[in-house]
Write a structure and sequence with these properties.
Length: 299
């Protein structure tokens, strides 16, 4: 089977290489990557046997919509497009409808595994028709980890279900990372704990909190024990926000995921206006002391 891959960033490039290592023919296109196999999207499409299969791995939103629009004009009836990026699930029906006007099939697939996926494999959450899923199963099997398919691949439901599952996955990830981070800070604050990285490493086997995320935190601390080279400013990719919005829409309480998202917002404030207001209120009603702002330094 030959697969076209659009987008050769950190994920797309490693996915192409894993497919090749597993015996599949994968040809990639990226306008900004030296590793691009094709000189244009048109050339990529022309290089594929019919019926074609093209996997899109570009940033969510406008970049994905642009690629879907281009593919709708380049592909033929019976061809298949997979959006494997972190698109919002509500975009999937729009993408499917655009392609359906030209007789082109569509799947959405949430992909988890990060930069380690080439070596370890990717967890895959797909949405779409069963016939299209079966057609692409050789690709799914090549990308996922070895072992039982059900442990790392799911046909979650119709179009949009794959990205919905990945959205919730990432929301859970927010909460898990925040819990590990808070535990790390609490350990570091206690003088009797003489080796914080060693404590965390001791949790990596046998404990109920062991996980790959914990292993990655241990690895990060082995490289930089005080995390001195890293700023606390933390971005969010959008999926945490979407998870919270869906929790509101379904009236599902999600305090942990919500708090983890808001903690990321707080990380971007050097001097929180909200906390300034809290400090001012404490001073007003109780006469509690406040710390005066440092005067601005003129360089």
């Amino acid at each position: 089977m030959k697969l076209g891959l659009v987008g050769l960033g950190k994920m797309g490039l490693n996915m192409r290489e894993r497919l090749r290592e597993r015996g599949l023919e994968a040809v990639g296109y990226d306008p900004n990557a030296a590793e691009s196999d094709a000189g244009s999207l048109e050339a990529l499409v022309e290089s594929l046997p019919t019926p074609r299969a093209v996997w899109v791995m570009v940033p969510a939103g406008a970049p994905t919509r642009q690629v879907i629009g281009q593919l709708s004009r380049l592909l033929a009836p019976g061809d298949l497009v997979v959006d494997g990026g972190n698109s919002r699930f509500t975009d999937d029906k729009l993408n499917a409808d655009i392609l359906a006007e030209h007789g082109v099939r569509y799947l959405d697939c949430g992909v988890s595994g990060g930069v380690w996926g080439r070596e370890n494999g990717y967890a895959l959450m797909a949405g779409g028709d069963a016939a299209d899923i079966d057609r692409l199963m050789p690709v799914f099997d090549a990308l996922r980890p070895d072992g039982e398919r059900e442990d790392s691949f799911v046909h979650a439901g119709p179009v949009g279900a794959g990205h919905y599952a990945k959205m919730v996955h990432n929301g859970i990830e927010y909460g898990l990372m925040q819990a590990y981070a808070e535990g790390y800070e609490l350990l570091a604050a206690e003088d009797s704990i003489v080796d914080v990285p060693a404590v965390l490493r001791a949790w990596s086997k046998g404990t109920v909190v062991r996980s790959w995320l914990l292993d990655l935190l241990v690895q990060a601390l082995s490289e930089d024990p005080d995390l001195a080279a890293i700023s606390g400013y933390t971005e969010d990719s959008g999926e945490g926000r979407w998870t919270v919005e869906e929790a509101i829409a379904h009236a599902v309480p999600a305090p942990v995921i919500s708090a983890a998202l808001f903690a990321r917002f707080a990380s971007r404030q050097d001097d929180s206006p909200a906390m300034k207001a809290v400090s001012a209120l404490r001073n007003q009603f109780g006469g509690h002391a406040v710390r005066r702002a440092e005067p601005a330094v003129i360089a």
